[in-house]
Structures are given as structure tokens and as C-alpha cells.
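pinned: reference chain
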Amino acid sequence: MASPTSKKILVVEDEHDILQLIKLYLEKEGFRTVSAKTGTEGLQQVKQEKPDLVVLDLMLPEIDGLEVCKRLRSAPETAMLPIIMLTAKAEESDTVVGLELGADDYVTKPFSPKTLVARIKALFRRLERKPDDSSAHYRYGDLVMDLARHEVTVKKIEVPLTAKEFGLLEHLLRNPGRVLTRDILLNTVWGYDYYGTTRTVDVHIRRLKQKLPSLNEAIISVKSLGYKLKELDRSA
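pinned: its C-alpha cells
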């Protein structure tokens, strides 16, 4: 049974059976759920219900999931709202577009409800993790990451990041100069044994660079392996 303090999840899915199955599994785990069957209704529910996370189907009536995701990410009040996208299309291009628009994760239909619940829990764990006082801040030039506030600023101006973008940046800042493989980043940042495409990491790194242009040259791609954050020259 859900407690009054449990997280609220909005499920936007037009297939009735899938919607009810997702809600059943989420509520068994103590989550509160609200639902919508169209993109328009989903956007309305976000405003009215203020969910902690959105499970968003790609193929929706009226407004598709990609457009819903785009609108949520472009509005300041929902720019950091966690979004997990559901897609019936297995092609890489569909998942890449969703990730490019700011989805934190995706699940391809048909899927196991247990897998979806595991990914939701992993995302919440990442958001709620309490950092040690000794590592509450990271600095990289004009960039400051405050783990306690879950905040990134550049020249004291906050830059909104999604949960996965924040997690990737944190891991890079923790390990300057080290090559981090895509598999390591997936398993560390996504918080579970990830069997999807490693292209997920590439898309999120690209989004990080777009939001933080000062890191364009600092985040280095290591061919066939992954990425590393260039160490700052302390002697300069």
C-alpha cells in the first residue's frame, strides 16, 4: 500500500491493458500513480498533479511522446522532471531522438514490468542519494557542481540538467583524466545492468556539451572505448 509520502508517477499510455499493467506493478511497489491516454492529457496532468516522474509512451494520440518530452524539457518548471520513454519501435533512431530531446531512459516494447520498475527505482536512487560532506562540491574552471543541492552552475548561473546528465557529469568530475568506458558509465549512472545500446551514453554526452559549452573540448572521446574529462592545468 502506498504511503502518503510515496513518489507520484504519471503514466502516459494509450493502450489500456499496458497502462493498467504498469499501474498495477507500480502500486504494488508503493508508488502513487496517475494516468493519461493522450499527449494533450499528459501535459495537463503534469501541470495539475506535479508528478515526481513520467513514464511516457512514444506513440500517442493528439500529441506524440516526442513532442510531449520536448515541451516538458523546454519549460523551466519541468526541465528536470525525470522521464522514461516507452517505445514500440526497436530502431535505434527512435530511441536516439527521444534521448536527444531529454528523456532520461527508455524501455522498448514488449517489456517486463519488473524491468521498468527497476529502472524507475534506480532513477529515484540517483536523485535521492545523499553525498558525503567531503565530496559535496566539484569545481572545474567556472563550473561548480553542488551534490547536496543537486545543482550545477557556470559563473554562478544555474544550468538545468536531467538526472542522467547530472549523473554523467558527476562521474566525469570524480574521475578526471581516467578513461571511462561506455559500459562503466551505463552501469554506474543508469544504476543497473544495462543491456541496451551504448549509443545512450553518446547522446547524453552530446547533450551535456550542448548545455555546457565550456566542456566541449574538455570531454574527450576515446575511440572504441568511451570518454574522459581532461585534467585541468593547475600550473596555469
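why pinned: The first strand starts at residue 8 and ends at 12. The domain at 8-128 is CATH 3.40.50.2300 (Rossmann fold).
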